[in-house]
Amino acid sequence: MRIAEVVGRVTLSRSVHSLRGGRLVVLRPMTLEALTEGSPGRGEELVAYDNLGAGPGALVGLSEGREAANPFGKTKTPVDAFCACLLDRLSF
Amino acid sequence: MRIAEVVGRVTLSRSVHSLRGGRLVVLRPMTLEALTEGSPGRGEELVAYDNLGAGPGALVGLSEGREAANPFGKTKTPVDAFCACLLDRLSF
Amino acid sequence: MRIAEVVGRVTLSRSVHSLRGGRLVVLRPMTLEALTEGSPGRGEELVAYDNLGAGPGALVGLSEGREAANPFGKTKTPVDAFCACLLDRLSF
Amino acid sequence: MRIAEVVGRVTLSRSVHSLRGGRLVVLRPMTLEALTEGSPGRGEELVAYDNLGAGPGALVGLSEGREAANPFGKTKTPVDAFCACLLDRLSF
Amino acid sequence: MRIAEVVGRVTLSRSVHSLRGGRLVVLRPMTLEALTEGSPGRGEELVAYDNLGAGPGALVGLSEGREAANPFGKTKTPVDAFCACLLDRLSF
């Protein structure tokens, strides 16, 4: 999982059916260097599905690719990015 | 999902059978910085399948990889990029 | 799918069994900017499976990852790049 | 698999259920050049699941994507990075 | 598949069970430009599974992602990189 910070939210107009009702957040992937120095990261933001209630500024583990769709079980969904966990503390 | 802007369309001559009848658009992935400043983004355009009717200039959530093929159900298809949703409003 | 140009062919000596008999081409991913200006692209060439008969100089839609193996059905194959369609015309 | 060095650990507050009880480490992908010269690598750190007991400073083979979830069997899990092996010796 | 050169080997100490007995090589992805000019490539080396007997200096087709695990059949394995073929001759 990449380390990412929650930087915004998304409002949808039209989407494929399986995404309706979901909560989407805008995430910015971060490096340890960016976290330590407070620099803004690389700016390649992603839209991800969240069901952990990650608020603005929270650090999350960003799971990407096919496995991001796993928690949805057998429902076909085009989700490829998912907040897998809230990172409480990084020690390095 | 990456954030992308619809910048063009594609006309196919030959394709694998499962792609026939589909609508393909050219997408340019965008960062929040590019969206805010009106800069052109990084220019690594992709061809994606669209069934939401995304028009030129629209912002979409671009789903990539195996899960992009999910909405097609059991039909074998080589699609690896899919317009999953129209982004109505990004708040950040 | 990434936009790519056919730039060469590959002759195999040894391969896993499921690849024998296939036709492999060398593809160079392109951006719209490179196509418009005639610049050479980024040079990160790939070897891809082709059954559309894509000739040198043709533009193809390059499907990558697990879904690239879909057209092969149930045969186990390590193919991760596949010419999904010949791009006849890009309008942007 | 990418070559990566263990540089830290993660403490979780909330996570999807299938991740609970697991051990997560922070990995920094390395190149052979970085390993030879002792340079710090590129700094695009990842959070990965570990059940090999990889300690700080250890070099591991980092497996990414859907196959990273394979060792978990049929349990649905959003893990997309996994310490597949401890690299005892690299000869090059 | 990416084009890669075999640059080394790996000796494992501990690994997940499904990797034991396998042969792992260190691969360096190459571009056509690097091959033509004899330049060293980009240096983002990977560890890959090999059962074709690829020796040092050989050029291989590097298959990545979930499909890399296909030749292993039903055994769960975290392999995400696999030597799919020895490239005998590239014509471009």
Structure description:
The structure is a homopentamer of 92-residue chains. Chain A is mainly beta and 92 residues long. Chain A has a single domain, classed as EutN/Ccml (OB fold (Dihydrolipoamide Acetyltransferase, E2P)), CATH 2.40.50.220. Chain A is 7% helix and 45% strand. Chain A is built from one helix and five strands; from the N terminus they run ββαβββ. In chain A, strands 3-2-1-4-5 form a five-stranded antiparallel beta sheet, with no helix packed on it. In chain A, a hairpin with an 8-residue loop joins β1 and β2. The longest helix of chain A has 6 residues, at 32-37. The two termini of chain A are 16 Å apart. The interface between A and B is medium-sized, with 31 and 29 residues. Chains A, B, C, D, E: Pfam families: EutN_CcmL. Chains A, B, C, D, E: InterPro entries: EutN_CcmL (IPR004992), EutN_CcmL_sf (IPR036677). Chains A, B, C, D, E: It comes from Aquisphaera giovannonii. Chains A, B, C, D, E: Keywords: Bacterial microcompartment. Chains A, B, C, D, E: It is found in: Bacterial microcompartment.
SSE blueprint and pairings:
5 copies of one chain form a homopentamer.
Chain A: E1 2-15, E2 24-29, H1 32-37, E3 46-49, E4 59-64, E5 81-91
| DSSP strand tally of chain A | 5
* Assembly state: homopentamer
Q: Kindly report the greatest chain-chain contact and the residue count on each side.
A: A-B, 31 and 29 residues
- Helix-strand pattern of chain A, N to C? EEHEEE
- C-alpha end-to-end distance of chain A: 16 Å
Largest sheet of chain A, described in full?
5 strands, antiparallel
Indicate the mean pLDDT of chain A.
81
Strand order of the largest sheet of chain A: 3-2-1-4-5
Strand content range of chain A: 35-45%
SS-based class of chain A = mainly beta
* Cα shape of chain A: elongated
The fourth-level CATH homologous superfamily of chain A is: EutN/Ccml
Into how many domains do the coordinates of chain A divide?
Answer: 1
CATH classification, class level of chain A: Mainly Beta
Can you name the CATH architecture of chain A?
Beta Barrel
* Percent helix range of chain A: under 10%
Low-pLDDT residue spans of chain A: none
Radius of gyration of chain A (Å) = 13 Å
How many alpha or pi helices of chain A?
Answer: 1
